UniProtKB/TrEMBL annotation:
<dbReference type="Pfam" id="PF22725">
    <property type="entry name" value="GFO_IDH_MocA_C3"/>
</dbReference>
<dbReference type="InterPro" id="IPR036291">
    <property type="entry name" value="NAD(P)-bd_dom_sf"/>
</dbReference>
<dbReference type="GO" id="GO:0016491">
    <property type="term" value="F:oxidoreductase activity"/>
</dbReference>
<dbReference type="GO" id="GO:0000166">
    <property type="term" value="F:nucleotide binding"/>
</dbReference>
<dbReference type="Pfam" id="PF01408">
    <property type="entry name" value="GFO_IDH_MocA"/>
</dbReference>
<dbReference type="InterPro" id="IPR050984">
    <property type="entry name" value="Gfo/Idh/MocA_domain"/>
</dbReference>
<feature type="domain" description="GFO/IDH/MocA-like oxidoreductase">
    <location>
        <begin position="132"/>
        <end position="248"/>
    </location>
</feature>
<dbReference type="InterPro" id="IPR000683">
    <property type="entry name" value="Gfo/Idh/MocA-like_OxRdtase_N"/>
</dbReference>
<feature type="domain" description="Gfo/Idh/MocA-like oxidoreductase N-terminal">
    <location>
        <begin position="5"/>
        <end position="121"/>
    </location>
</feature>
<comment type="similarity">
    <text>Belongs to the Gfo/Idh/MocA family.</text>
</comment>
<protein>
    <submittedName>
        <fullName>Oxidoreductase domain protein</fullName>
    </submittedName>
</protein>
<keyword id="KW-0560">Oxidoreductase</keyword>
<dbReference type="InterPro" id="IPR055170">
    <property type="entry name" value="GFO_IDH_MocA-like_dom"/>
</dbReference>
């Protein structure tokens, strides 16, 4: 019989709130404890989600012997420190995307986790959504032939706030590390994380971070990906995959509830997901499955792939000359 994983939550912000709210839909896990920089915030969060324990520091949280897995929901400049705190306490960790700010940080985390045989995974929740699983099945079955082109974009227009997380270089702001992780990871899902050639352009705003970007990736043999992202421009947030025998369309691909298969000469086929959860439940379920099977990582989003994606994002930022003050 599978053990029900007791989750400890690092951070009480919006994404942590969304993740814990979805745990009620998880069969192999439950929200158990939360840690924050203040006991007041932790106590309020725990009461809202009916969690057993609240701690006024992350260090206290990870020392709780009842906690099986830690979810890190803090802003990405703090991921390395927060994940290491949990790993050093011997905990399994699910860390929000982007995993880290750069590949050097991620190499440190992966090295520690592998050396100490601890579970670690990037919380790329999109990969585990039923429509995206169906998309991968269609591709693997050859329904659209040989895949030649991926198009994906995610962008929104945030209100001007130079001190806010999205536009502040001291907080790792900018489109690539916030919205960009979605289309870049989506292309990696289809073609892998190591294109042969990378071209990109970005608009660097007055705060010094990328407000919009466009990326063209060449994987060889006529396979390309066209990706866009923005935090100061609304985009369609759609994804398309084109093959030699048809195509797949995923509206709002990052939190997709449907996907449509277009095979040449056949009627369109739509997969519709009427899930009750927002969608974060599926990644939590995967962590529980892996832990109950004694696995140290998930094959759906492996640590090597996460590292390849982060190296690619480093390369893209280097083309723009964008480095953060703390790097």
């Amino acid at each position: 019989m599978s053990k029900k994983i007791k989750w400890g939550i690092v951070g009480t912000g919006w994404i942590s709130d969304q993740f814990v709210a979805d745990l009620v839909h998880v069969t192999n896990g439950e929200g158990y404890a939360v840690g924050s920089r203040t006991i007041e915030s932790a106590t309020e969060f725990a009461a809202k989600h009916q969690m057993a324990r609240a701690y006024g520091s992350y260090e206290e949280l990870v020392q709780d012997s009842e906690v099986d897995a830690i979810y890190v929901g803090t802003p990405h400049p703090f991921h390395t420190e927060n994940v290491l705190t949990a790993l050093r306490a011997g905990k399994a960790v699910l860390c929000e995307k982007p995993f880290t700010v750069n590949s050097g940080e991620l190499e440190e985390l992966i090295g520690f986790a592998r050396e100490h045989k601890l579970f670690l995974m990037e919380a790329m929740w999109t990969r585990f959504l039923p429509p995206i699983r169906q998309v991968r099945e269609w591709i693997d079955a050859g329904r659209i032939g040989e895949v030649k082109l991926v198009k994906a974009e995610f962008g929104f227009r945030v209100e001007w706030n130079p001190e806010g997380r999205l536009l502040n270089p001291d907080l790792g702001g900018g489109a690539l590390l916030d919205t960009g992780i979605y289309p870049v990871s989506f292309a990696s899902m289809v073609f892998g994380p190591e294109p042969k050639h990378v071209w990109s352009t970005a608009h660097i705003g007055e705060t010094g971070v990328d407000e919009t970007f466009s990326i063209l990736l060449d994987y060889g043999n006529g396979r390309t990906a066209m990706l866009n992202g923005a935090v100061r421009l609304g985009l369609t947030n759609e994804a398309y995959i084109h093959g030699t025998k048809g195509s797949i369309h995923i509206p709002s691909f990052l939190n997709s509830t449907s996907a449509t298969l277009h095979v040449d000469g056949e009627e369109a086929q739509t997969f519709q997901d009427d899930r009750a959860s927002t969608g974060y439940a599926f990644e939590a379920e995967e962590v529980g499955r892996c832990l109950n099977k004694g696995l140290l990582e998930s094959s759906t989003i492996s640590l090597d792939e996460s590292l390849g994606i982060m190296k690619l994002m480093d390369q893209i930022r280097a083309q723009w000359g964008l480095r953060y003050p703390f790097e």
